[in-house]
Amino acid sequence: xxxxxxxxxxxxxxxxxxxxxxxxxxxxxxxxxxxxxxxxxxxxxxxxxxxxxxxxxxxxxxxxxxxxxxxxxxxxxxxxxxxxxxxxxxxxxxxxxxxxxxxxxxxxxxxxxxxxxxxxxxxxxxxxxxxxxxxxxxxxxxxxxxxxxxxxxxxxxxxxxxxxxxxxxxxxxxxxxxxxxxxxxxxxxxxxxxxxxxxxxxxxxxxxxxxxxxxxxxxxxxxxxxxxxxxxxxxxxxxxxxxxxxxxxxxxxxxxxxxxxxxxxxxxxxxxxxxxxxxxxxxxxxxxxxxxxxxxxxxxxx
Length: 302
Ligand code: UD1
Known about the structure:
Helix content: 25-40%
Bound molecules: uridine-diphosphate-N-acetylglucosamine
Number of domains: 2
Order of helices and strands: EHEEHEHHEHEEHEEEHEEHEHH
């Protein structure tokens, strides 16, 4: 996209801030963020910050006024948090997103929104195709599935241009190692400090880790594609076990950390991985960063 007025919700967060940085030179960027997990310092200088809550009607109206395009990345991303507070997750991840779709309808703005592999729950098979069964295993997954469906129906019912991107395990520089962040940021933090690496369970569980540059790539392609009213997996098509990941991170950081095995996480998904043929065919998306290179870039950022 160029010469557009673009709203990025969650633009001070991990994915949103990378998108803002990639788009700010050629577009007018508005960031809506309440800065609870997002950080002001991640927002590029020339972007305009609207500090506030997506659930606030006036804030949403101000943020969406005259926009051409919306990237919706704001969310409560903690799966565990959604188990502890399902209503809060629903308010933000589902209801506020529906309000955003309504606002987009008023403005006739395209919406590219963050869906999640969490909508598949415990998958029947890996790699997962978009049409595979969806039985989310958490309130978070249920909320993401709801907005994924709404996105498609807003196209069918109201001609609103939408693309839902089902992110698999995103990682990269800028993902901070708090309680609720992804395993890569946790392991990198532990390895750099020579602390024990905490593998949950036997480490045989597998994931499709997708580097932030490729997440951004998928968003940019979704912003201009003719394939609207659609939903795509965003991953690499490759998986790695958590144990293998731990070893690779120890190598990349040249760490003295010991790899330890702690109790398995309740409800942990055993195997997850994306079939990416649809996004490759329709959007021309291709993963460009290998896990090893992505980990090196992530570690360099610390
Ligand atoms: C992740 C996302 C979730 C998204 C989902 C989609 C995060 C925090 N969660 O969940 O928002 O919807 O993918 O697929 O990004 N692990 C350890 N040790 C640790 C931490 C984790 O062994 O210290 C293991 C977990 O048990 C799990 C794997 O690493 O098997 C990945 O965990 P995590 O990064 O939390 O991601 P998901 O559970 O896949």
